[in-house]
Amino acid sequence: MSENILPNTSILDCNTVISFNLEIKSNIRYVGICIYNLDTNEFSLCEYIENEHFTTLESILIQCRPSCFLFLSSNDSIDDKRIKMILNLCEIKLEELSKNDFQSESIENDLNKLLKENNIKNYISFLNLSIACKSLCSIIKYLSLLNDDSAISKCTLKNYNINEYVKLDKAAIISLNLFQDKSEEKKKNANSITLYSFLNKCKTKIGERKLLQWITHPIRDLKKINERLDMVEILKEDSVTRSIIQSDYLRKVCDLQHIIKKFKLVTNTINDKKKISRNKNWCTIEDLVKLYDCIIVSKKIYYCLSDYQGRYRKTLENNFLNPLKNIIISFDSFLKLVELTVDFEEIENNNYIISRKFDEHLEKLANEKDHVYNLIKEHKIEVEEDINFLKGTKKIGTKEDIKLVECNTNVFLFRAVKKDINYIQQRKKVYFQVRMNKSEILFHTNKLKDLCKKYENILYDYNIAQQELADKAIQVACSYWEQVIKLSEIISEIDVLCSFALASTSSISSYVRPILEENGRILQMKDSRHPLLESNFLLMNNFIPNDVYMNKDDKRLNIITGPNMGGKSTYIRQIALICLMAQLGSFVPCSYAKLPIFSQIMCRVGSSDIQLKGISTFFSEMIEISAIIKNADEKTLVIIDELGRGTSTYEGFGISWSIANYILNKIKCFCLFATHFHEMSNLEEECPSVINNHVAAKIDKERKKISFLYEIKKGYADKSYGVHVAQIAKLPKNVIDKAFEKSKELESVENRHYFKTKLKLKNLENDQINTCNQYQMHLKNIFNVNEEKEFISNVKESYSALKEILNEI
């Protein structure tokens, strides 16, 4: 495939497996899905009825980003092919399993062993999801969870509600440029502006992951959206608090997701001593200190937010202050453990060790170690004085003529500069050369050797004692991994909301809080702008804002016509992007925005947005538009751009007309339809719920040049100005001139047909017939010509008469 639809995985740690089970009954596709998160041991189940395009599956894959997809081949080869095509597009590993892997006879016993709460009666509702339970069984067998100590009695089970989030199809992901995909990563196209990169002002890795999760999971719950907007408004208005939280606190938060993995691994293998020994370096005292610092920072964030006493205080308390306070309290014992066991003075030297004061035996060994080390340093001074005596010099200041260096073989050696080799060799029986380098000589003495041996023995015992105490401290600390998950969740959300607030204040133009309605029938934006294009430094202060007003009753289909490059595509994309941002909980680039809650955003944009191998551009268009027609509902936002370019003009126009008419009268959802067929504007005459808009352009007739105004105005455009755009692209002058000549010729023929059609008298009233008869002979003379120039001349001369006739008709 030429493109894929999943985000750049460099910012993700995907550790999710999905199992998919399809059963077809009476031509209806019943799907059961199980999603398993290996990091949290969480099973999520759902069942639903799928369509022939598998758009719901596609949306779930976009949201969950699994590392592996378990699949049982169905009896329908076409369905299997479509599923594999989606997986290939997403670059997800496919594992085809046998029917035996999806047997669910032992599901109750298996869950009793795996779930934390081993009373299966509490999960009866999940057992009723028979198709999804088969998928769950396949994951248990595939991952051998019943033989995995990290899973036994540690799993949880929940429902995955597919209607909780806005469904995004693959075209929406790409055309709205939501995030950098894998193909762009391979091309090293890291400079492209995406919604993710635009909104990403996060200071933590966990915040970046949370932002990506939110972008792929726009929410439909109005209460949750408004709670996010409340927080963004708090942080937007109080820039000082936001700046302190971001600059002073959040930047000090480590990657808690990696800490969680390490803690969970130790906890799950605590009874396997060999495994703990093998993996002990996966979690260290340094990790405990990092978490300790995060908790201290979390306290500061809590106190910083606590000062707010505005109108959204209740939202702040319920969603952040109270949960954060409870989490911090739950870490009290952990904080005491770290403070009691860790040597904080050594941390300044980047040494993460157990404090000697924590254990008497450790303290004794540490004191012995220090004593021997001091003897080694004293011996070094003796050697230094002896060498200086041989040289006939004295030590100057604090300069060290002989240095003590660590060596793996002998623990410590003396090092001198090469010019002192003669003095060292004078005492060959005292100083034993070990190695000579380019500019230095390494040597030892018998006394140093004995001291090093003693030091090495004490150090060995000391390190064992350190490791034993560290392992115990780590084992106790790692039992807090579930609390760390909660802390990570709330800190990452604060980071994202701060990022939203900063993004809305960083723009030159204003951002506003959107007004959202559960079953809203109005889509209205004033001074709307494309957030990604506006942020481009080349367009700063030059982006033209535009309004939009649509309502479900009589203005739900917005047809936009006008010249190529005039801004039609940008306009419809920015409206969809603003609607998406609103359901993320972000402020939007408008001066006013009133929006409904959308269930899905579906796009048919561009002629080859997702080019499939072996499939023509036009057929690809038809597949995408078919998915929209069959799956869109009244709460869907549909944007369609330049449909029908891959076939003849008449067929393309016919398809565009019929699809627009179907969306208008059958689906009855909000739809923005940008088209180069300006004849589409006639749909307004047939259907009252259509509104026509066009992108404005200024034509210099003498120079045959076009200037784009990028303004959306009411009414329709009667031309596409394609030749003018070709002129901008610097096609050869003779080609442009010929194009102008041919287009005028075709337009004149079209105009003749239009006038003749208008003058048919069969259905006219008597008074209209009398009026037209007065000019009938005159008009026959106008059309009774063979040359184009003569026709144009006659029309100009009789313009007033023609205008009067048409008005009468």
TrEMBL record:
A GO MF annotation of the entry reads: mismatched DNA binding
Under CDD domains, the record lists: ABC_MSH2_euk (cd03285)
Q: Which residues form the DNA mismatch repair proteins mutS family domain?
A: 636-652
Q: Name one GO cellular component term.
A: MutSalpha complex
Q: Which InterPro entries match?
A: DNA_mismatch_repair_Msh2, DNA_mismatch_repair_MutS_C, DNA_mismatch_repair_MutS_core, DNA_mismatch_repair_MutS_sf, Msh2_ATP-bd, MutS, MutS_con_dom_sf, P-loop_NTPase
* Keywords linked to the UniProt accession: ATP-binding, DNA damage, DNA repair, DNA-binding, Nucleotide-binding, Nucleus
The cellular location(s) given in this protein's UniProt record come to: Nucleus
User: What GO biological process terms does the UniProt entry carry, in alphabetical order?
Assistant: maintenance of DNA repeat elements; mismatch repair; mitotic recombination
Q: Which family does it belong to?
A: Belongs to the DNA mismatch repair MutS family.
Its recorded name reads DNA mismatch repair protein MSH2, putative
In which organism is this protein found? Plasmodium relictum
